[in-house]
Specification:
123 residues; 11 strands; mainly beta; 7-stranded mixed beta sheet
């Protein structure tokens, strides 16, 4: 059974950068659509970006366009989320998620979830 583990969350100042990692165990991430979702306190979980098995990218939030990048590292069985020019509104718990077929239309559509990693953007 696929298990996902996130890492890389931290406290960062506005305008800073951060890279989150999602590593897989019990399965090959290349066989799944992998997405990053986030949840701020008091808010619903929202999908951020997703990469399909053929490399196609789905951007769910317009505000991250041009700032966030998702990529795979097949050798390390990992998926990364590179976040640049971070803003306070990017604060939240970031979850890696997998779907066995394709990038779903909404955050709750993923099949498998990691435990999350905290990202705080504050001066």
């Amino acid at each position: 059974q696929l298990q996902l583990v996130e890492s890389g969350g931290d406290l960062v100042q506005p305008g800073g950068s951060l890279t989150l990692s999602c590593t897989g165990a019990g399965g090959t991430l290349d066989s799944y659509a992998i997405g990053w979702t986030r949840q701020a306190p008091g808010n619903e979980r929202e999908a951020v970006l997703c990469i399909s098995t053929d490399g196609g990218i789905t951007i769910y939030i317009n505000s991250v366009h041009g700032r966030f990048t998702i990529s795979r590292d097949s050798a390390k069985n990992a998926v990364y989320l590179l976040m640049n020019n971070l803003k306070p509104e990017d604060t939240g718990v970031y979850y890696c998620a997998a779907d066995a077929f394709s990038c779903p239309g909404y955050a709750r559509g993923f099949d498998t979830w990691g435990q999350g990693t905290q990202v705080t953007v504050s001066s």
